[in-house]
Design goal:
A: 283 residues; alpha/beta; 10 helices; 12 strands; 41% helix; globular; disordered N terminus; B: 804 residues; 7-stranded mixed β-sheet; 5-stranded parallel β-sheet; 30 strands; 16% strand
């Protein structure tokens, strides 16, 4: 591994898969990232215990999403459903990992999806997850697993991906001058491919003095990486404005410091619902 | 009459051309001939047929091939067409109400192409205008607003339900079978055991809550399709509004331009409505959002939509001067009526109005159409199609497959186009008369008959015209000039082709071909102009190419395979002459005719007829002989004769009565026992009164016997007896004329059997006296005497039989 990649240590990546389109995008991004950092990859499929329990309930009934007809939910149907998806995802995982020569394992766990993913993520440097999983009830809502992955217990980097998306240039880093911001900046510098696009840095500065300061600090950090970069500034600390700035920048992948002042409470989730590009949440 | 009085003089055998009225050295000095030679009747008929505009006055130009019927009709039509109005353009457009019935539109000449270009330009502008409209911020933001409204409504309903569920310790869980409602505790669904541990009341309460929430969920889910339908309707409404704004102005321009054409204005209204209805097809697609084949399918769908706004120009008269004059060389049903083509698309045969192709009737509409009758009749259903179009006065494109229910693929029923056309059919007489007899509607549709004559009178003025015609043909064919001698030879050849020294052939194609060949030989010989020798060489070469069979027949005669004597005298045997036609080549063939007589019941047996090798005309000739014999020699007592006649070594069909005089001579010789000179040959038919009548092919017959005699060596006694009525037809070869000049060959023209038999036997025929007898020693005396002897013998025989 080059000195440049050592700046952000990525040795183990966990990707949560459930055969939904979003999770397939997550798997592809995970293999890509594992290949780049020569990291170990673990694919995790969680058999949702809640779904199994519903099936076991004596009075359980499900309503068809299209027909609105009620029908009994059978345990066998649920288990067959899980087996089918596990088989499918294991095959995709193996093919993709083999293609990029990535060392990886595919694990199946049964339990609460959020807690199983978080448990697995605790042992990893990066968690990659689709924005909405198979169990989504409505389209634009961020799924419960992704929601949980954005909480404080998540590993240092969490990447949330959307259906059909990948880690695409240009890379846009939101920089607030914090140590986590520095980490995100260095991660961006590591991921950027100078042949395609410069690294774009969005400075969160309420005034000009702050902006100059952030710019100097970012410049000093990036000097070590020798990457070409461009700056833009966001003066308002507001998640809506941030979302608009991200959309306007035409960024392909967003790197965001989790403890940024603009991301108070559920702001991360709001942002994820607003924008449709992959987001890397750095802690 | 003395034998010498009946012999023809050399100048009677060949009538040279008389060009005294014309002063020229070569055809280069002669003016072009603009009038038609020798076809006054046909020209008048065509002129009448061309001029008259009433229904059914179409023309049938009939006559043998090679008379330039088509050329004459075409020139007449062109002359009339030059000053006629240029007919309308025609095009087909899509019918938005009944897709399988494209609409026919008539436009002033040249306007159809303009209309097509206008519509093509509109389509191009549509793409731009609609893309701009649908990519505009206004459209995008309104569309997004509508979509978000739907999303929010759905989200709100689910969020409220989820909130309510959470408040009641429940959650919505997605399962493979759909969405279920389940009791929750600390984020987990209660297990079966936990449920079972609940009291009955708690279980009932939980179940009640689940039931209520499921009902709520069901209500929401049932609302979703309605919301989606509403979303689609609102989006469609937006699309329509934007499309209307984008294209309205463009179409208004065209509407104003074509305001005088109701069909086009209606079409533009339909196009506008269609664009608005299909507006979403114009929405630009994001290539990365969908697979390539989907993009291709969408593009194809858009192309198909746009194609319906196109114009299929069927007839463009922008460059037409006057009315069109069309000759259709291959008058198939499709080539006449037009057709609807198909293209293979995903394994199926598809079509649309752009694949309608015009036929000759479309191209000739408003003008003139010339067709070869034989070709029309040879093509399946072509005549039916033509007849239907002329009768109905409209062109109705319908495929044969459809008409006959042979195929059931998707096809069109294009709107019929009104038809106004003058049609001329050219063909042989037989076709005309057959159509007249067998086709009831023919007389109603082709009321003008232009009858072409294959020959014209030959006199000084007509020969002068013919000379100018030769000059005109030479120039038209790009040939070098013909000198005076060549022109004369061509005229003489024309008379020979007409088979009459007083006529000229009007088969211009044959003459033109001969001229081309003569010019070829002239070039080969290095002559600057074409001479009589070149023409003669061309004639000889033509004959040479065709006369293999004649050569073989002559060879068989000369080698005595076929018996034909040319010297000596034989009783009951005469040389008859027949003509064989091989294609357009005819030659004379001498045949031995023999007769045998014995006592009998007055019958002349035609052996050819007995074995069914003789045709009816031949049999008629032979039966006439019985009448002649009875009337001449057996008025007082029965004809007690049995005679048989045969064409020796004839193995094919024999017809015509031109050998009847020869048969009579053989019969008289056989009865009288007077031999016939074999150095002579005979042709001519005979009637019951003993008059010798004209026959056809006299020149070929004379030459046929001459060639045999010449090959064996002319003795000075040889010759041919022809009917006097055929003298005017003589145009024999120059070598025959030369032989006659030298006295080496003789041609006798006889009017009666008596004149003929005298020449053939050298015995006087003898005239009948008042008592019905003939002078002793004459041939008729001997015939009568023999017949009386035969009658006596028969009487004796009958009496002896009766006595027994």
């Amino acid at each position: 591994m080059s000195e440049r990649y050592d700046a952000v240590a990525v040795r183990r990546i966990v990707v949560a898969v459930d055969a939904s389109p979003n999770s397939q995008a997550a798997l592809r991004a995970a293999v890509e990232m594992a290949a780049r950092f020569q990291a170990e990859l673990m694919g995790l499929f969680v058999e949702d215990i809640n779904v199994l329990r519903v099936a076991e309930l004596p009075f359980s009934q499900a309503l068809g999403g299209y027909s609105a007809h009620r029908r009994r939910v059978a345990v066998e149907d649920v288990e067959r459903h899980f087996r089918s998806r596990i088989r499918q995802m294991r095959r995709v995982f193996q093919v993709l990992a083999q293609r990029r020569s990535v060392a990886g394992t595919f694990r199946v766990a049964r339990g609460m999806v959020d807690s199983e993913i978080q448990a697995a993520a605790r042992e990893a440097d990066v968690l990659i997850i689709g924005r909405v999983g198979w169990s989504k009830i409505r389209e634009r809502q961020v799924g419960s697993a992704a929601r949980a992955a954005c909480c404080d217990d998540a590993p240092s980097v969490t990447l949330v991906l959307q259906e059909g998306k990948r880690l695409a240039p240009p890379i846009l880093v939101v920089y607030d001058g914090s140590s986590i911001g520095d980490k995100g900046l260095m991660l961006g510098a590591t991921l950027v491919d100078e042949r395609t696009e410069p690294l774009r840095v969005l400075l969160l500065a309420s005034d000009e003095g702050r902006m100059v300061l952030l710019r100097e600090r970012a410049g000093a950090l990036l000097r070590n990486f020798g990457v070409f970069h461009q700056y833009s500034v966001l003066t308002d600390s507001d998640v809506t404005k941030l979302g608009q700035a991200v959309q306007a920048s035409g960024g392909g992948t967003l790197i965001l410091p989790a403890k940024s002042p603009v991301l108070q409470e559920n702001a991360v989730l709001e942002l994820l619902e607003e924008i449709d590009i992959p987001v890397m949440l750095v802690r | 009459m003395a034998k010498s009085d009946l012999e023809l003089k050399p100048e009677q055998l060949y009538r040279p051309a008389d060009l005294s009225e014309l002063h020229f050295d070569t055809t280069g000095d002669l003016d072009d001939l603009t009038e038609v030679v020798g076809q006054a009747r046909a020209v008048d008929a065509i002129r009448f047929g061309t001029g008259i505009q009433d229904d059914g006055f179409n023309i049938f130009a009939l006559g043998p091939t090679g008379l330039d019927k088509r050329g004459l009709v075409r020139r007449s039509f062109q002359s009339e067409a030059e000053t006629a109005a240029v007919p309308s353009d025609w095009c087909y457009i899509h019918n938005f109400k009944q897709e399988h019935k494209p609409i026919a539109v008539a436009l002033p000449p040249g306007k159809a192409v303009e209309f097509r270009d206008d519509m093509n330009a509109l389509v191009q502008e549509l793409r731009t205008a609609l893309s701009a409209a649908f990519e505009s911020d206004e459209y995008q933001s309104r569309r997004q607003s509508i979509s978000e409204d739907f999303g929010e409504r759905q989200a709100k309903a689910f969020d409220e339900l989820q909130r309510k569920a959470r408040g009641e310790g429940m959650a919505l869980i997605r399962t493979p079978g759909g969405i279920a409602v389940a009791p929750m505790r600390d984020g987990e669904v209660l297990s079966r055991e936990e449920i079972q541990n609940l009291s009955e009341e708690e279980q009932a309460e939980t179940q009640q809550k689940i039931e209520e929430l499921q009902q709520d969920l069901q209500r929401i889910l049932r609302q979703v399709p309605g919301w989606q339908r509403e979303l689609r309707e609102r989006l469609n409404g937006l699309n329509r509004e934007m499309a209307d704004l984008a294209v309205g102005a463009l179409i208004d321009e065209l509407r104003s331009k074509y305001r005088d054409h109701d069909k086009i204005v209606n079409h533009l209204d339909a196009v506008q409505a269609d664009i608005v209805d299909n507006a979403e097809q114009f929405l630009s697609q994001q290539p990365q959002d969908q697979p390539q084949f989907m993009e291709a399918m969408q593009q194809r769908s858009l192309d198909q939509t746009l194609q319906r706004y196109g114009v299929n120009v069927l007839i463009d008269n922008s460059n037409t001067v006057g009315a069109p004059v069309i000759y259709e060389d291959n008058p198939t049903h499709q080539n006449l009526i037009g057709r609807v083509e198909h293209r293979a698309q995903l394994g199926a045969l598809m079509t649309d109005f752009m694949l309608i192709k015009p036929g000759a009737l479309h191209r000739a509409n408003g003008g003139y159409l010339i067709l070869d009758a034989r070709k029309v009749l040879q093509q399946p259903y072509a005549w039916e199609g033509l007849k239907r179009a002329l009768t109905g006065k409209r062109i109705n494109i319908e495929s044969l497959g459809q008409q006959l229910s042979l195929i059931s693929t998707v096809s069109l029923e294009p709107e019929p186009i009104p038809l106004k056309v003058k049609v001329a059919l050219t063909g042989e007489r037989m076709i005309y008369y057959l159509l007249w007899q067998l086709e009831p509607e023919f007389a109603e549709l082709f009321k003008v008959v232009a009858d072409f004559d294959e020959q014209m009178d030959r006199d000084a003025s007509s020969q002068a015209l013919y000379a100018r015609l030769i000059g005109t043909l030479a120039r038209r064919e790009g040939l070098r000039p013909f000198d005076r001698s060549a022109v004369a030879r061509l005229i003489e050849r024309s008379a020979r082709l007409a088979g009459d020294a007083d006529k000229l052939s009007t088969r211009l194609r044959e003459m033109a071909d001969l001229m081309v060949e003569a010019e070829y030989w002239s070039r080969e010989a290095g002559n600057g102009v074409v001479t009589a020798d070149d023409v003669q060489r061309a004639v000889d070469a033509q004959t040479r190419r065709l006369d293999l069979t004649r050569e073989r027949v002559q060879e068989a005669i000369l080698r005595d395979t076929l018996f034909v004597d040319t010297e000596g005298e034989v009783v009951g045997q005469v040389n008859g002459l027949s003509v064989l036609m091989l294609g357009n080549f005819a030659f004379g063939r001498p045949s031995r005719i023999t007769a045998r007589t014995t006592v009998g019941k007055g019958q002349v047996v035609d052996i050819e007829r007995e074995v069914e090798l003789g045709g009816p005309l031949h049999s008629k000739g032979v039966l006439i002989l019985t009448g002649y014999l009875s009337g001449r020699y057996a008025e007082e007592e029965p004809l007690s004769l049995s005679a048989s006649l045969v064409f020796e070594q004839s193995y094919g069909h024999v017809d015509g009565d031109s050998a009847s005089s020869a048969e009579l001579y053989a019969l008289l010789s056989s009865i009288s026992g007077v031999p016939i000179k074999q150095s002579l040959a005979v042709t001519g038919s005979v009637n019951q009164k003993g008059e010798v009548q004209a026959i056809g092919g006299v020149n070929e017959k004379v030459e046929g016997f001459f060639d045999i005699c010449k090959a064996r060596g002319l003795t000075g006694d040889q010759g041919v007896l022809i009917p006097y009525a055929n003298v005017k037809h003589l145009m024999v070869r120059q070598d025959v004329v030369s032989a006659v000049e030298r006295g080496a060959f003789h041609i006798y023209a006889v009017k009666t059997v008596d004149q003929g038999i005298e020449i053939l036997t050298g015995v006087a025929a003898g005239e009948r006296d008042s008592e019905g007898g003939y002078p002793e020693g004459t041939l008729n005396y001997k015939v009568q005497a023999r017949l009386r002897a035969l009658a006596a013998k028969r009487r004796e025989y009958i009496e002896s039989v009766e006595e027994k």
